[in-house]
């Protein structure tokens, strides 16, 4: 018996004010053996849409096999980092009003997986090497002695010392925009250093020297060439390169 025909979903009416956009998406399916190639889709876009809405349109109406990660859709979970027109962005934070040409000319937007991590399928990469580097810097509070009977007090001044680096959502936009990381994935990468910074400069933590030792390694902070790609890519506005410089300075003063 032949399989029942699957009807393509009916396309919704194009909303008033929408313009048609060509989405050129890098595809890769390890099961087909076809290798990486481009597929283009025509998608209606409103200025208020985020790029994620367009990807969901493709998946919902044009090609259900398109594979990408997303969860919160509000720039919080960090799961939809991708390379959009050659720049790392979160698809859910990129508003179409910033991508559509003012003169109404046709526009093509390219979407690729972030660079430097193995592609698993379409826009999904293997994040394990990224998280291995994160785990290696011990991104948790380390203390000795007995547990205090009340919370660990910290002054506002001390808390402000590492406020910026607490904002990291581990999206990998920074690490996968770093030319050093592209050329040699053994570099810890900016995201791991940001998360080490968050604890190195926490007055309640007692393992700063342990983390500094780890980052003094040949694959640590000294590999950074201060090109600022990471700072430009961070969707949370973290001063990534500044944090790396602060860790370098802490190492120099500890010598
Ligand atoms: S500043 Fe350093 S970590 Fe950031 S992208 Fe440049 S080389 Fe990489
Ligand atoms: S520092 Fe910014 S770009 Fe890097 S992982 Fe954290 S949130 Fe993402
Ligand atoms: S889907 Fe969560 S940050 Fe974009």
From TrEMBL:
InterPro entries: 2Fe-2S_ferredoxin-like_sf, 4Fe4S_Fe-S-bd, 4Fe4S_Fe_S_CS, Beta-grasp_dom_sf, Helical_ferredxn, SDH/FRD_Iron-Sulfur, Succ_DH/fum_Rdtase_Fe-S, Succ_DH/fum_Rdtase_N. One of its GO terms (molecular function) is 3 iron, 4 sulfur cluster binding. Residues 158-180 form the 4Fe-4S ferredoxin-type domain. It is an enzyme of class 1 (oxidoreductase). It holds the Pfam family Fer4_8. Keywords: 2Fe-2S, 3Fe-4S, 4Fe-4S, Iron, Iron-sulfur, Metal-binding, Oxidoreductase, Tricarboxylic acid cycle. Its EC number is 1.3.5.1. GO terms for cellular component: plasma membrane. One of its GO terms (biological process) is tricarboxylic acid cycle. Its cofactor is [4Fe-4S] cluster; [2Fe-2S] cluster; [3Fe-4S] cluster. SUPFAM superfamilies: 2Fe-2S ferredoxin-like, alpha-helical ferredoxin. Belongs to the succinate dehydrogenase/fumarate reductase iron-sulfur protein family. NCBIfam families: dhsB, PRK05950.1. This is succinate dehydrogenase. It comes from Rhodococcus qingshengii.
């Amino acid at each position: 018996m032949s399989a029942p025909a699957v009807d393509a979903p009916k396309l919704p009416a194009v909303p008033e004010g929408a313009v048609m956009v060509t989405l050129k998406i890098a595809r890769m399916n390890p099961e087909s053996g076809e290798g990486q190639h481009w597929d283009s889709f025509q998608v209606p876009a409103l200025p208020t849409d985020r790029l994620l809405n367009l990807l969901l349109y493709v998946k919902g109406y044009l090609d259900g096999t398109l594979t990408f990660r997303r969860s919160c859709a509000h720039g919080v979970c960090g799961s939809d980092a991708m390379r959009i027109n050659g720049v790392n962005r979160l698809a859910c934070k990129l508003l179409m009003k910033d991508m559509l040409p003012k003169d109404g000319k046709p526009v093509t937007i390219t979407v690729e997986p972030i660079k430097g991590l193995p592609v698993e399928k379409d826009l999904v990469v293997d994040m394990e090497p990224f998280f291995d580097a994160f785990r290696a810097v011990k991104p948790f509070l380390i203390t000795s002695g007995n547990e205090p009977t009340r919370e660990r007090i910290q002054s506002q001044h001390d808390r402000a010392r590492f406020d910026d680096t607490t904002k990291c959502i581990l999206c990998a936009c920074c690490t996968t925009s770093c030319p050093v990381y592209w050329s040699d994935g053994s570099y810890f990468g900016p995201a791991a250093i940001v998360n080490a910074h968050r604890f190195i400069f926490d007055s309640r933590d007692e393992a700063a020297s342990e983390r500094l030792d780890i980052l003094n390694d040949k694959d640590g902070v000294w590999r950074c060439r201060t090109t600022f790609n990471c700072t430009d890519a961070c969707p949370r506005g973290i001063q990534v390169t500044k944090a790396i410089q602060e860790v370098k300075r802490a190492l120099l003063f500890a010598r």
